[in-house]
Amino acid sequence: MTGILRGRRALVTGAASGIGRAIASAYLAEGATVTLADRDHRVTAVTDEVGARRGVILDATSEPEVDALVARMVDEDGGLDILVCSHGILTQSPTVDMSTEMWRETIDIDLTSVFLCNRAALRPMLAQGAGRIINVASQLGIKGGVSLAHYAAAKAGVIAMTKSISLETAGRGVLVNAIAPGPIETPMVEGIDDGWKRDKRAELPLGRFGRPEEIAPAAVLLASDPGGNLFFGQVLGPNSGDVMP
Ligand code: NAI
Questions:
Q1: pLDDT profile of the chain (245 residues), mean per 10
Q2: What CA–CA distance (Å, rounded) separates 139 from 153?
Q3: CA 121 – CA 83 distance, rounded (Å)
Q4: Is 1 helix (H, G, I), strand (E, B) or coil?
Q5: Could you identify the atom of ligand 1 that is nearest to the CA of residue 181?
Q6: What's residue 6's pLDDT?
Q7: What residue owns the CA closest to ligand 1's atom 26?
Q8: Which residues are bridge partners to 236 per DSSP?
Q9: Which DSSP string do the residues of 164-225 spell out, in sequence order?
Q10: How far is CA 160 from the centre of its chain?
């Protein structure tokens, strides 16, 4: 570790588990001041385990909660330099059987809440003329997936939103990018049936799923100076070779 993020103030959502937790740990190791946020109460214990200063229970679909957390960080920390949106859910259903409720829940948690977090972070970042936003999308937002129309649509939305915001912030010091992982060994994927996992592993050029700590370095790169300085509206694909755009 090089301390490349020393002094940077970061907010990581979905930080109680999986990829978000790994990114929060990597940012701490690189010297950042990290706020972990998650709707799961375990975020408090994880905050202690990784040695972060602040852990917050946050429902990222709640506009008042998101706005209040960013306002608190600006008030107490003096600003916000990095936002990572890594919260999310994954459910499955063939489209013909999918309830409207299931569709709306996924769009709300996996897309609309990412907009809420991005918008809240943009206010202080544009005011200070600097910032990095990293949205965790998915390769499924590029290739689609069986029984995953809602999830793939939400993640495609995250990718398109990332590019659009990035164009809006051009020349104003705020760089917005996405990471679109392939299958990663986290609780989210553990819930999928074993047959799917076996077939998926066999199909991957690398022959195995990734681990959360193999995603975190991409998030460090995108947040870093000078490493991340030229990334703008990009979608990095640590995906075991599953998608080659
Ligand atoms: P995970 O299930 O381990 O962690 C997701 C976290 O998000 C959980 O701690 C959960 O409590 C939190 N969360 C869910 N809804 C929330 C809300 N409304 N407000 C605040 N927190 C909320 O899953 P994982 O794998 O770490 O996923 C992280 C991100 O990576 C997600 O956006 C997921 O869609 C994406 N992703 C995951 C892949 C995988 O194979 N695990 C592949 C591609 C993308």
A1: 94 98 98 98 98 96 98 98 98 97 98 99 98 98 96 98 96 97 96 88 96 98 98 97 92
A2: 11
A3: 7
A4: coil
A5: 43
A6: 97
A7: 18
A8: 179
A9: HHHHHTTTTTEEEEEE----B-SHHHHTS-HHHHHHHHHHSTTSS-B-GGGTHHHHHHHHST
A10: 15
Residue 1 is predicted with a pLDDT of 74
* Among 101, 86, 84, CA closest to 150: 101
Q: Which two tokens stand for residue 244?
A: 């080659």
State residue 101's pLDDT score. 98
- Cα–ligand 1 centroid distance for 160 (angstroms): 19
Q: How far apart are CA 212 and CA 177, in angstroms?
A: 18
Task: Enumerate residues lining ligand 1, CB below 6 A.
Answer: 13-14, 16-20, 38-40, 58-61, 86-90, 109, 113, 136, 138, 181, 183-184, 186-189
From 84, 89, 112, give the residue whose CB has the most ligand 1 atoms within 8 Å, as the site to mutate: 89
Concerning whether 151 is annotated as a catalytic residue, the answer is: yes
Q: Is 19 helix (H, G, I), strand (E, B) or coil?
A: helix
pLDDT value for 192:
85
pLDDT of residue 18: 98
Which DSSP string corresponds to 61-119? T-HHHHHHHHHHHHHHHS---EEEE---------GGG--HHHHHHHHIIIIIHHHHHHH
Mutate to test the pocket of ligand 1, among 12, 56, 69, 86 (most ligand atoms within 8 A of CB): 86
CB neighbour list of residue 194: distance below 8 Å, 6 or more residues apart: none
Q: Atom 4 of ligand 1 has which residue's CA nearest to it?
A: 17
Identify the pLDDT of residue 53.
Answer: 86
